[in-house]
Amino acid sequence: MSGYVAGILAVLAINLLLAYAVFLPAAAGMINLGAAGFMAIGAYVSAYLDVEYGLALPLCLLAGAVVSMVMGCLVAIPLLRTKGVYMVLATLAFGEIVSGALINMEAVGGAAGYPVTTFIDMPVIVAMAVCGLLLVVYLLSTRFGLAMRSIHDDEQATALFGINVRRVKVMAFTIGAGFAGVAGALYGHHYNYIEVANFNLMLSTYTLLYVLIGGTQTAFGPLVGAAIFSLMPEMLRGSEHWRFVIFAVLIIATMALRPEGVVTRHGLARLFGRRKVEG
Amino acid sequence: MLLEVNDLDLRYGRTHAVAGVSLKVQEGEIVAVLGANGAGKSSLLKAVLGTVKPAGGSIRFSGADITTSPVPHRIRNGLVLVPEGRRILVSMTIHENLLLGAGLREDRTTLPREIDAIYDRFSNLAARRDMPAAVLSGGEQQMLAIGRAMLAKPRLMMLDEPSLGLSPLLVDRVFSLLHELNTNGMSLLLVEQNTRKTLELASRGYVLELGRMVMAGPADALLADEGLQRAYLGAG
Question: Which of A143, A149, A154 is facing B103, going by the closest CB pair?
């Protein structure tokens, strides 16, 4: 495998893990425009433990995920009071606060960035992403997954089944934050260098976009979305100036023509013929 | 006594939705709550399920005070609500809608058999079990909503206007289903505007007006009542 392909696969795998930080809340009817903030938390926590204490890598990754999840939980609770555009703004603000805090934190290099000691190679990252995908597939098949999707459809009706809507939403957001934390940690150890600018609002925006375009109904939507977003800029590299234009047109076209996303549950069922659709 | 509501007060802000309402349902009974729009019927059911907190009064279910119990606790104890407008989850499949009804049940060993029984009963649902529930007609959605509630294994099923928006033929089907459920031992608390049909099915009835209980009694007595006939049955 060429270094070029390996590089793209690593990007794709990290983007996929990050996508679930948007996907899981979205599946429960929430919007997270602060995914990059959680990613930054995971990246810096893992890098710091690695550089300063030489902690074993799995522990660094775990710590990155856990701290990100704790932050996710703390953000999700007040977020329950917000809806629609206010939720978007609140999560956006969170991402900006993380950036602002990190850039002033001298212990992790501040604006100069932070070199990370231990390297993680592409196969490990891809393996983690596959595990992440399987975990989300499993989560969606549980009663918790059913509850998330039910909340997405009709929050008040879901409460009538005795489902604790608030708890499910906080959990979806928190687990999502954990995914972003792992994505960030892997990012840091793969490139051996992180700076605040890696985790900017643009990344959060793109992640939200590609999750919505991939589709929020199944765990495979973010995979397709992440693949489109990771590969498309590469495929369009030939036309240097036009590629962003083409990219933008594709995004708008998808949203206009297929607002439910590229991958739908019904589409998957038809594709694999698992479930016969009877008239 | 299965359900005992005593002197219940419900308020939304400063408006009184329900004031001083008392009501009883005995084991095996069908009890009707009648009244015009805005009489407080839906609020009453929501308070019994626990999604609306009472400002005063008490609610007892099979002997225990549940006035402040959380919703899941009440559902586990055998209360269930089929909400007004059915509230089917339209993007989820019919099968998933049914599974959600059983969501809180701890005993799940017989669940597959019970779901099969529901499919046997409603062949329209069985044929489309893996399609989004949005494909169902209003009557089919009502059957799904009732089927979903049955899977919670309730002792008291509360229904909020199950005949709303259905053709007369489908209304008959819904009411005969309710009759059958009752024959099999389930108690029912039925909120309706379809007064005559409801009183023909129920054993007792209550009439709410602007949040207050104005009449109560055996169903046949209410059916014969002249005032009620003028107000709700379009007679005389």
Answer: A143
CA atoms of B106 and B120, how far apart (whole Å): 24
Q: Mark B18-42 as b/e (b = at least 16 C-beta within 10 Å).
A: bbebebbbeeebbbbbbbeeebbbb
- What are phi and psi for residue B58, nearest 5 degrees? -140, 155
Residues 6+ away with beta carbon under 8 Å from A228: A210, A213, A214, A250, A262
Cα–Cα distances in angstroms (integers) from residue B141 to residues A114, A123, B93, B148, B177, in the given order: 58, 49, 12, 10, 14
Residue B80 corresponds to which tokens in the numbers above? 């269930």
* The pLDDT value given to residue A279: 35
How many beta carbons lie within 10 A of that of residue B80, not counting itself? Answer: 26
Residue B167: closest CA among B199, B134, B139: B139
Q: Show Cβ contacts of residue B224 under 8 Å, excluding neighbours closer than 6 positions.
A: none
Does residue B84 have a pLDDT over 90? yes
* Alpha-helix residue ranges (DSSP H) falling in A142-193: 143-153, 155-160, 165-191
**H-type alpha helices, chain A:** 3-27, 35-53, 57-79, 84-103, 122-141, 143-153, 155-160, 165-191, 201-214, 220-235, 243-257, 265-272
- Beta-carbon neighbour count of residue A197 at 10 Å? 12
Q: Cβ separation of A149 and B127 shorter than 8 Å?
A: no
pTM: 0.90
Would you give the DSSP letter of residue A262?
S
Question: Nearest Cβ partner of B92 from A149, A164, A278?
Answer: A149
Q: Chain A residues contacting B, CB < 8 Å?
A: 143, 146-147, 149-150, 152-154, 156-164, 217, 266, 269, 275-279
Cα A35 from Cα A43, distance rounded (Å): 12
Q: What is the per-residue pLDDT for A266? A: 77
Sign of CA dihedral B219, B160, B42, B188: positive
Tell me the β-bridge partners of B23.
B5
How far apart CA B99 and CA A212 sit, in angstroms, is: 27
Q: Which residue has the tokens 């993680």?
A: A120
Q: What is the pLDDT of residues B20-36, one digit of tens each?
A: 999 999 999 999 999 88
Which of A146, A160, A279 is facing B96, going by the closest CB pair? A146
Report the C-alpha dihedral over residues A98, A101, A104, A107, rounded to 10 degrees: -90
Torsion, Cα of A65, A67, A68, A70 (10° steps): 120
CB atoms under 10 Å from CB of B189, counted, come to 26
Separation of alpha carbons A114 and A136, rounded Å: 31
Ranges of chain A whose pLDDT falls below 50: 275-279
**Inter-chain touch B90–A217, beta carbons under 8 Å:** no
Rounded to an integer, what distance in angstroms lies between the CA atom of residue A168 and that of residue B41? 30
Asked if B156 and B190 count as a contact pair (C-beta separation under 8 A), the reply is no
The pLDDT of residue B16 is 86
